[in-house]
């Protein structure tokens, strides 16, 4: 290579093949598509808000984790749960079945053997009568519920420690509940060990993230080791691509539902199929607009050595853990959201049974979604924004758009922070492999955590 030659990954794309729509028709079309996108987003947010106001029909992730953190030390060391801890847990739990779970724990751990005079106010809606009958039978003198009711209550309480203790109380009136209590204690200690390992991993990643953050601050003024992918299409073309792709998100869901309509047993494929259609359409749109083959597109956005990019991906994963956890703690104190950002995924996971549907959703969440979303936001949008904006502003705008497009207001601070860190990974490496790794590990870990606890 000659001394003044550019490395292959820094060379601009060949001119003439990319899309440059004329402003005379592109600007009105952009305005129309933007209006349609806002309307579609408004409808989707309205539907999600209406769904979010309905109480969950089972104990959720927050309740299940508090269950382990409250009962675990008591079982392991015999230490009593303080009144302050009970009050704090009661203030944190908003969902009725989470509060029902807490009521059972208090009855067992704080005032074991209490009578049924102080019935809990929760839960509401479906399953309430069955829970109250089980409560009266366990802590009062009410008749034993039938097996179907007991199984339903056990499931709605999450099938964990509190659910087992309530069922053990009922078995005390039959064959005896001690075997179930012993089994519940063993399962609780396993969950406590899992949470301990998770907490240790988060702490170690946080320390690593702090080191990565200090390094980035100290080297921010230096030129990036590798330039971002170069795109020759115009800003109007980029705006049209993003708007059409966003609107296709809503259409792909309806197409998938229609395709699966004759096959009711395959409805669990709706989400994977919908996302596959959406990703395939977006990929084709991007390649057509830039005049690239799929292979040429990948070579453009993922140049360089695989090992180096994956090593940086691990470093930025640690930074993501530190930053997202910090922002989540601060935003929860300030905004005090009533609903979990993971509510939709929790409900989706509860509707799945069997390894096939769970594997399909896992591959979608931890494989297809990270690959395609990183291609659009870090491989395409970030370099296009950075052509005319300072890098810091381009990172911020791409991160905010990444968070907003998920249509989860409660999760916008954490999603935006995650997008910002993945943008930093793209800036540092010039390759999409690092942000894809961060995104895949994040989504996959969240999926497994929800699968285990919720």
Automatic annotation (TrEMBL):
The membrane spanning regions, by residue number, are: 29-47, 195-217, 237-263, 275-298, 310-335, 355-372, 392-422
Superkingdom assignment? Bacteria
> A Pfam family this protein belongs to?
Rce1-like
Q: Where is this region: Disordered?
A: 1-21
* Keywords, comma-separated and alphabetical: Membrane, Transmembrane, Transmembrane helix
Q: Please note every region of biased composition (Pro residues).
A: 1-15
Which intervals hold domain CAAX prenyl protease 2/Lysostaphin resistance protein A-like?
358-444
Does Glycoprotein show up as a keyword for this record? no
State whether keyword Transit peptide applies: no
Annotated InterPro entries:
Rce1/LyrA-like_dom
User: PANTHER family from the xrefs?
Assistant: CAAX AMINO TERMINAL PROTEASE, CAAX AMINO TERMINAL PROTEASE FAMILY PROTEIN
Q: What is this protein called?
A: CAAX prenyl protease 2/Lysostaphin resistance protein A-like domain-containing protein
Organism, scientific name: Geothrix limicola
